[in-house]
Amino acid sequence: MSNKLKYLLLVFLMIPIISCNEEFLERTPTDAISAADALANEDNMQLVLNGVHRGLYSQSQTVFPGGSTARANNHYWVPLGDNLVGTLIHSANANNLSWRSAMQWNEHTDPTTLTTRLMWYHRYNIILHANLLINGIESGSLTETPRLRNIAGQAYTYRAYAYLALVQHYARGYLIGNPSSDPGVPLLFSSESPFTSEPRSTVQEIYDQVESDLNAAIAWFENSEAPGVGGAAAKAQLNVSAAHGLKARWALSKGDWQTAVNEAIAAREGYPLLNESDWKSGFNTNTLSEVIWGSNVIAAETTFFRSYFYLASNTFNGSQIRNNPKFADRRLVDAIPDTDYRKDVFLPDAPNSNTSAANGEGGWANNTNPLYTTEEEFDAAIAAIKSEYGLVSGHNTHPYMHFKLKQANPGTIDPDDVIYMRSSEMYLIEAESKLMMNDLDGAKEALRPLAEARDSAWDSDAFATQQSFMDHLKFQWRLEMWGEGFGYTNHIRWDEGVDHAADGGSGASEVLYQQSYQIERPSVNPEWVFKIPQAEIDANPNISPSDQNP
């Protein structure tokens, strides 16, 4: 592997490894855990895993040298999936953490940006730690116990997770490309210096590795013993359900429809759908019944103004959100039936209180909503929203703003959990996969539990053709998973571009969105693929400038 990557990965093993559970916050006597000590016993191996758990959400400069305070890993990568495709719409010109630049497609298309560089190094850090545990366990020198089996299952799941994320961002989509020949990412199996790596493996080779790792993970989780933690911290530990869920995602993205069905069904077992109250509670905790996997962000590890909710939740008390409330595509919101309670988290008639709004319609002087006939009514509506949702005086409001993502303590900068996988997603995967196998009736039945739970008047007979049901499935994906980061991978799988102007418009400002206002579909636009970090090309003898994504 490159000298740059060697340095970044190796040093991570020497940082303090801290658990996601507060009882493990004490550091080791040397304030660090070495690679040699990591395999000494199961407790130390668990500490390595806990470090990876923490690394999912910590500020990146605490994870490896060369990081930056401007990224807190999955706090950024999760909402980025919706930021890139115009699901999470900006209402004003705010660029904290390069969030506007990312929205305008000026980050992932530039090999020198933090976005391209830090996602690459973060995922390879996960791979390094997984390799350390996997190589130690597979050596046969350790006594196999139920606890060791759980550690192995988590390590294999993490490696699969990281490789799937890398290949889905830094390589052409499986279904729209030529997987057997399209360049993927380098495979890394070593855990100690000197690191060795092949050049960029093909997309197919990476997908094969992900499958192998997930199959191994599922086998290792059998007869295993999970760490003795409960509550939100328990779901920060990976389990067999998360492995099945990742395999369902893997299969869906490559068109292995039957495997996607089987794995989605297995993944969601034991994770009942949310009721209306819980669905509207803000998606801020792993304790929600649907959550299969998520980061339990401990209070001692607050990321302040680098968090998921700072970028995406309208209740957060930070300048990115106060000055730039995020809103949903009005075409989506207007299509939600009144009988569907998910409609309640979007406010189409919220006054535009921001005189700096990108659409130029902010403030009472520019009001066009006939609901407000006087300035007093306009101001009263703003005050009512702030009171109901716990906003501070500096928060602006905007038509179609959302309150799906809400802090547990609105109007603060308190940390909240980051959810990665819910059982709702598994119903959507099953339904889409069955439809792609030309089983329209089966697809309807697969979606029914989710659709009927959300919409009291949902009627499967309203969709007589595969195309009409596919359109409805896309609607369900966009609504149910709104703000949770699935927009980017969905667009690639469906080979859909971005068009804020079509069908009456999304409400986004063309002046603000610039080149990302209308984007050609992935199969004809190579800019959907992230650039390989220039630092990697400069240092890695196995990757040359000719290997850069076009």
Walk me through this protein's architecture:
By secondary structure, the chain is mainly alpha-helical. The chain has a domain at 3-79 and 111-269: Serine Threonine Protein Phosphatase 5, Tetratricopeptide repeat. The protein is 43% helix and 5% strand. The protein contains 22 helices and eight strands. A two-stranded antiparallel ribbon has the order 1-2. The longest helix has 25 residues, at 114-138. The radius of gyration is 23 Å and the shape is globular.
Q: What ranges have pLDDT less than 50 throughout 5 or more consecutive residues?
A: 1-32
Q: What's the story with the biggest beta sheet?
A: 2 strands, antiparallel
Tell me the fraction of residues in β-strands, as a range: 5-15%
Which fold name fills CATH's third level, the topology of the domain at 3-79 and 111-269? Serine Threonine Protein Phosphatase 5, Tetratricopeptide repeat
String of helices and strands: HHHHHHHEEHHHHHEHHHEHEEHHHHEHEH
What's the Cα radius of gyration?
A: 23 Å
Which class do the helix and strand fractions yield? Answer: mainly alpha
The CATH class name of the domain at 3-79 and 111-269 reads Mainly Alpha
CATH architecture of the domain at 3-79 and 111-269: Alpha Horseshoe
Number of strands: 8
Shape category: globular
For the record, give the distance between the C-alpha atoms at the N and C termini, rounded to a whole number.
22 Å
Helix content: 40-55%
Secondary structure tally, helices: 22
- How much is the average pLDDT? 91
